[in-house]
Structures are given as structure tokens and as C-alpha cells.
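Proteins fold reproducibly. Look at a sample protein:
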Amino acid sequence: MSDFSCVITGGGDGEGPGGADALRASVESVLGQSLRGSEALVVLAAAADPAVRTAARALAARAPERVRLVHADPAARTVGALRNAGLDAASGRYVLVLGSGERLQKHACRNLWQAGETSRADLIAGRWSRTADEGGKEREPSWQGELFTRSRTLARFTDAPELVVRDALVTGFCLRREAARRQGLRYEEDLAHGEILFGPLAAASVGRIALVRRLVVTGRAVPDRARDLTALVEAHRRVANTLLARGLPELREEREKAFARDHLVPLVRSFPRLPAARRDRVAAAAARTLTRPVPPDLPPLERVAVSLLARGDAEEVLAAAYALSRPATVCAPLTTGADGRVSWCGASREPVADITELGHQYRPFGEARLMNRLTRCAAAERGRLLLEGRLVLPGHSAPGPGTPLAATLEFRARGGAHAVAFPVEEVRHDGNGIIWRARADVSRRLRPVGVRDTAWDARLILEADGVRSVSDLFAPQDQVAGAVRFAARPRLGRLAADTWEPYITLKDHFALRLTARRRPARTTHRLIRYATHFRPARKAKLLVRALRKRLDRYRSRGRKAAVYNTWLTRLPVRRGSVVFESHMGTCYGDSPRALYEEIRRQGLKLRATWSYDPSPAGFPTTARLVRRWSWRYLWALARAEFWVDNQGFPQHLRKPRHTTYLQTWHGSAYKRMGFDETRVRLQNAPQRERLQQAVDRFDHFLVRSEHDVDTLARAYRLPETTLLRTGYPRNDALIAERTRAETEGRLPRPPLAGLLGLDDHKKTVLYAPTFRGGPGKQRKSRLLLNVREFAERFGDTHTLLVRAHYLESARLPVCPPGTVVDVSRHHDVSELLALADVLVTDYSSIMFDFALLDRPVVLFAPDLEAYAAERGSYFDLLDDAPGPVAATQEELFAALAELKKSDTRWADRRRSFAERFGAYDRGDASRATVAAVFGPTASRGARHTTDHDRGAGR
């Protein structure tokens, strides 16, 4: 008896694509297993293709001890029947079924076998991937990562509901053969996609289940949802009924939602690529089979897409497909109810679904993106291009029926600034849209060069009451297939190209491309191709590629660091030169800015250089600006007498012996930092040594309290002689603002309030969450606070300023004007703190600074226990917080609503918090720091000399 029987079918009705090649790939993956006790059980249908039979016999002859052929009964025609025959013939301790073309990873059987033997589970499942595109690229389902985040054993399937809520068990799992036979597990022979039902049935029937985080199966084919919609819906329905029969209605509802997102929404997305006739057939099939109510908690556009698909209107489904790929575009008429809610309106003028949260109602006509559907593309008289279309109008801000309209059709060279405009001969209102028609003499007026400007995108520019609306032309892929062609006259002559050909881009936009269809142009293209591909040209390309690689190495940070450390640090110092950097060049702010402005106020004769990355916008024009990691940046660092920053100059760069390094730092610590971090403690010795060498460069380190001495200074192993107990220069502005507010009042607000559009009669809430990532590039983050719900609850009385961490970015939803403002790209956070009436944060050091203003702080920390366990902390936030700590969004909203009443309870605690963590912030930090570092009696890098410093310049 073998350890593993892998059932592979061939020749069944409804078998996937690939035929003999797919069978061969699956069997080869079994033969390549590191677990030698695995066999391939090939079940052939009586009506199997001769090529499939030949391939199966050849594989069995090559490895007779590991490949068994099973000839199914002639009555067994479906894939389900063939798989049942394989289950009956299996002799291994474990049995696994592979679909057409699916391949096992090399150690798949060993990993599953070991997990089964260790856990004594009856079902062992692992991860699988499917072919994502025609190029064969593999991709795992997005939901699979959370399900298989770690290997584990389940007592029953409800401990991991995703096993049955999603199609997690369509492949990549095995069953203990005895358990399968004891439970009578069989594939439904009348079901085209029986694997969708078999996996959940198996999970619900057996006992213990083991999950393996390893990838088990690759090469699963994506189902043809347009062709197999009825079968997919039937399989899903049987799974849902099974869950309901087992008393799990909540899992059934989750299953309905997951099926809509995993199958129905992708089907809608594919509509622009389907021919018109097939779109109609699919829509009709959907109307017959989708009888269940649409899950109410789907995202708005997905709810629209599934609802329209169930109605069976192919044209409306096509509009929903455009909207799914362009959420900010109005793709259908909108209606607004008496309660202010906005709904997608179908052709019947009846609301389809609520889409208020998309925020279309807040965009005026000129700023709204409108779908412009191309309805006709044909040849007009005298060889001109005839285009007709319909522009969807939003109901809330559209020009009225009597408004005069003017429109222009524009073709613009892709990637260039060259554009040609054509007048639109007819433009008129049509209910909730605008119909337009234009004739364009592209042969005469469109004159490309003929090289690199071969694609021209079309767009319509509509003007109404002086307001312009620009829209691309949308169309399905078959809209202009082989429709018309026009003669082209490139400036390089007709040997370059000779024909304009309309086509639809991959983004469903109408465009023109320049092609060569006649013999002279085709001959020219062949000659050019030959000239660029024959041996000398290939050698020239290889030489150019090698030169580019060498140039890239010359520009690489590793090469620059080597040149800097070896040669540039030998350059003589430029007395009085200072290099400033804030948050690795991302902004002009924080304590380096405060020091720079104090130096200018005192009139000190220092030459300032600021680094920026990626843009110099917002940096001072009175200083020299250099891009971070540029050669000018390295030159400035090598010759500078002073370095000033709040985060850390690049670790790989040595500090010249003549340079004094002032590290202002960027905030007091709640979470563990430096060598106290678990991440750092787990690093190898060279990595920890690099960090130590980086902090050894500091000559001065600013602290604002003894808490900083006990945490930051100790965590980075800084000697006492390094510490300057001056406070943070950036906080001088906050001390001044508090004094002004106490003596003169809060009004008038600083000029920044007017620039941000803040209303003096509304409270300003600053939401500034902490950084949750690790080392690496900037990434997008998901805000824990639902800003749209905040706008709905507090928009009339509050304005929310959202400040993402400088290493992260957050995409905000469209909200009513004046309710939510993104200030993540504002340079100086101190200016935002001075504006805010309330701070909402989690674990960010910004709470220590804001406490100096003596204004309310609310901590929104829904993951407090998990975060503290993962990152570690220096104190208990619940015991020492300067304000209420909310564990849920409702608690946060309740705290904000009761803030005026409850703030008196927190006033004393907030003041003691500010005294404890900001004892040295007295409002004179900038002046004291400038005197200590840049003054005539200041020491110049005389802290201590390390071996790392001695190596600089050698």
C-alpha cells in the first residue's frame, strides 16, 4: 500500500483545457514528489481523446510502479463519476484529487503526509494558486493568506469558517482514505463543478482537520464564469443548503457574500471583453439562476454589479463593469432621496442600490468624472471618422436642459503634449445624459511624426456655463473591431506608416493607432526590424545594456556610499556649513526647521543646505537644496561642519572627523525603540553593529524629559555627555501658542486655518495614527478610523484633519466639503497641532507634544493588547494616558460627543502627563540648542572618537 494516491482524470465531459499536455503535467508533478510512496492514479473515460490515452499509456510504461491506469465504466462520463472511480481504486493511506493541469509542488505530498501523521487529522489542506493570466503567472486568492497564516489543527471546520465560506477546498487537500470511505464521501456526478461541493462536504463530515501553510498545488485554471455560470451557481447553492441543514445560517450568509465577490463580481468585470451576443446570453442566464437576494453588506459598487446582473440587462451590467474599475466615475444616472441618500438609477429609473458613500454628490460638475459611452464608430463621407456617444450626467450638479452646450473632440498623443481638436457638430440634452456626434478628418488633420507617437487617445471636452468637463470615451472591446480604417500621413512619410486604425485599449478607452498595412510601409518595418535584430545590432544592444548596467552601478547607493566613505570624507571642511534633514528628506519641518529659522533670526553666518526626497516643493528658497542620495548631497555631507536631523542620516555613511552631528530626534517613546526592540534583538551581529555605528555618530542628542534619558538614551546606548536637556525646538511654537491662547484667546486662528478651509465655528480634530510598518519603502495603510462615518456623525460640528505617518499614505473617501481634510503632505506637524482643538491618535509620540497645549487627547487603540505584545512598551497606556482610551469606534465617538463634559476629569492628569514627559520643554529650546551647538563656546564633535570615526577619510 502506498502512502499517497493522487487521482487524475482524463477525457471526462467538462474536463478543463489542455488535454494530453495537462494530464502529462499533473502526472509528472506526482512522479517528481520527494515522498516516494506516492502514486498517480490516472482514470480514463471510455470516450477519452486518443492523444490523452497515448500520453497516459506512455507515463504508465515509464513508471509502472508509480502510475496506475484505471479505465472507467463507459457510463462514467462526467468528471465527478471519473473521480469517484479513482476514489474506489485508491490504495494509499491518503488520497488527493488533482484537476486538469494542476501540479503538485515538489514536497507537497510529504508536507501533507507529515501533517496528517502528526495531527492524526482526517483532512489535511494547504494553499493553492491559479493561473492569473495568459502568460501563465500564478496568483493565490487574496483571502488565502489569512486562512493559512500558520499551520494548525482544528477540532472541526467551524473553527476556520473560511474553509467552507470560500472555495478553499476545491484543490490542495487530501483525505485519509479510511475516513473518506467511512463517511461515504462522493462527488456529485451530475454537477459540473463538483469539487466546489465535495470539499465543504468532506470538511463537515470528517473529524479533525489540519491546515498546512505550505503551497501544495499550482496551475489551477480560473473557471470560465461566463460559460459555467449556471453550474457555478448550482454548486454554490448546494453548499449553502448544506450549511443551512447543519444549523449554520450565519455561515450561509457569509457564503452568499463570498460567492458574490469571488465569482459574480469578476464575471461583471469581464463584460467589456465579451462580444455583445455573449453578454446578452450571460445576462439572460444570470437572470434565470440568480434568484437569491443580493447580500446587503457588499461594498456599494459590488452590490450594484450583482443586482444588475441578477436583473439580466447586459447594457446596465456593462456600465457597472466600468464603474468597478473606475470607482470615482459616474457611470449611471443618480437619484437623491428625501433623506439625502444617493442611489444608482437603472434604465427603468428605479433605484438599484445605495452608493452614497462613494461621494459623487460632493463633486461639482466640472470635477466629477463622467462616463462617456461611445455608441457608434463608422466612416463618414469624404473619408472622415464618425463618432457618436452619450455622456452620463449626475443629477445633483448637471447643467439644466436649457443650458447652452459646446463640445470639442480631442485626440492627444499618448505620452506627449501634442493634441488636435475637432469640433463636435451636435451636442444636446437627452434626459439624464448628453448625446453628441462628431466628424473628424483624421487623415488630413492628424499628422504624427510616425515614431513614438503611434497611439492617440480620444476625449470629449464639454463646456456648460463656463464650466469644463473632460471625459474619456469608453467602449467594449468589440465596439470597433475591424470597423473602419483611414489613410494616415506621417511627417516622416508613408514609409513610416500609412493607416489610422481605431481600437479599444486594455482600459476600455477609445483610441487611434498608427499602423503599416500597405506594402511600402510593411517593407520599411521589416527592414527596420531586420536592422535592429541581426547580429551586429544584437551585439550593439548588448553593449548598450552593459553600459547602462555599469551606469546604474555607478548611480547605486552602494557605490555612492563606497566613494563617499573612501574619498569624499577626505575633503576639507567648509566652515560654517550645515546640512539639515527632516524625516529622511520628506518634509521641511520638525526641530531641524525650528533650528534653521532660529539661526536665521539670530543672523548667524552659517551656510544652510536642506535635503529633500522626492520633491523640493515647500522647502526654503533661502537655503541650498540637494536631493537625498544625490552626489551633491554626499558632497555637502562630506564637507559640512554640522549635521542636523531628526531621524538619521543614511547608516552607511561615515561622519567626517571634522563634523558635529546634532540629532534632535522625532519624539518621546511609548513603544520600545533601538536595541530594546524585539526586531533588533533578533538581528544578526553585523546588523546590530551597523545600528551601533550609526548612533555612535551622534555628538549631541536632544531630550525633553528624564523619560527620554531612561528610554531613548538607554535603548540607543548613548553616553551622558551626548545628551542636551533643552527640550525639542519644534515645541517652542506649541508653548507660544498655549501662552497666546491663554492671554488673547484662540481667535483669530493662524493663517493655515484659512488655507485649509477651516470654519471658526467648528471644532478641529486632528487624527494622527502611528507608523505600523517596518523598515522599507513608503506604503499605503488602512486607517482604523472610519472617516466617512465620522463625517456623517460629526460633520456639522467638527472638521477632521487626517495626518498619516510620513512613511505611510492613506487614501481617504470622498466626504462632504469641510468635514475631512487630508493634511498628510503638510510639512510641519506643529502647525497642525496649533490648529487642533482635539487630538485623536493611538501610540504615536505626537501625544507627548500635543499635551503641552493642554487640549483634549483621545487615544483610539482597538489593538492595544496585540500592539503592546508585539512592539513592547515603556509604560502602561491605560494607567498613564492623557485622555480616554477607546477600544472601539463607538467608544471613540462617544468620547468625542461627551468631550466638553468629560474634559474636566482629565485636565489634571493631562497636565501631569505634560510635566512628566515634557519637563524640559520651556519654550526656549531653539535658542538654547543653537547656543550649545553653534555658539562661540560650543564644542565641535568632541564627544568621543570611535574606531568607526577613525576610519573616516582613510
Q: What stands out?
A: The CA atoms of residues 735 and 922 lie 7 Å apart.
